[in-house]
Structure formats: C-alpha cells, structure tokens
Amino acid sequence: MALGQLPARSVGAHPVHGTVVDAMDAAGPQVWYDMTVEVALSVMAAARAEHLVVCDEDARCVGLVTQARLTAVRDSSGYTDRVRLADITDGSQPFVSPSATRAEAEDAVPCGRLGPVPVVDEHGSVLGVLALFR
C-alpha cells in the first residue's frame, strides 16, 4: 500500500465481532452546549454535517443533535432565538463505550432509537459516532 492510501471500506460494512471502535465513524463537528439553535443550524449547514456533537465547558460530550431535531425545535410554538443546545440536550441520550461490542451497544440503546450514538471514553471525550440501524 502506498503512503497516504487507506484501504477501501464499504460504507455499509460494520463488523459483527470486535468493538464499536471497529465500526464507528468520525465524530464530526463538535459544538458547545451554550450555542443557540440558529447558530447550530448554521454550523451544521456550513459543515454539511448530519449531526453535531454537543460538549460542555470541559469538552465532555453531553449529547448529539441532528438537523431534524434542531429543525423541529426551531419550528415549535415555544421557540425563541434564545433557545440553546443545553435546553434541548439534557444528557439523557445514550452513549457507547469504545470497548463495547456492536451487540452490546445495540442492547444498551433504548428500543426504537435509531441513528447516530456518540462513542465516548471514560473521561466523556467523544471518540466517534456509531450509526445504529434496526
């Protein structure tokens, strides 16, 4: 293999065995939880990202927001331009340990929860995102 080349990886290929590190994708853009929804939507559009990882003041992951979630919040009747990501990310979202297997990760996530789930280390730092499809 030549320097600078990486082996091809199928987008849909997620190993059944091993840990979630083998199947996770890059975390993508990380933003602070005091950012407003409007600014987060702008960051997401500029980065052409499907989600944003939300971090607290200590750079610990507190959740993940998708464009669909941000748009739903913005379009809700109670929305004001002062709504911050901290207001919609309460830390109750599931997180996955990098040492978990894919099966363990799927078992740990509430039934019906689809989409990206942050993979975080013991310090709360995001390492990547695991996409769950059921």
TrEMBL record:
Entry annotated with the keyword Transferase: no
InterPro entries per the UniProt record, alphabetical: CBS_dom, CBS_dom_sf
Record-linked SUPFAM superfamilies: CBS-domain pair
Residue ranges of every copy of the CBS domain listed in the record: 24-82
Keyword presence, Cytoplasm: no
Pfam annotation, one family: CBS
Keywords associated with the record: CBS domain
Database matches in Gene3D superfamilies: CBS-domain (3.10.580.10)
Protein's UniProt name: CBS domain-containing protein
Lineage: Bacteria, Bacillati, Actinomycetota, Actinomycetes, Kitasatosporales
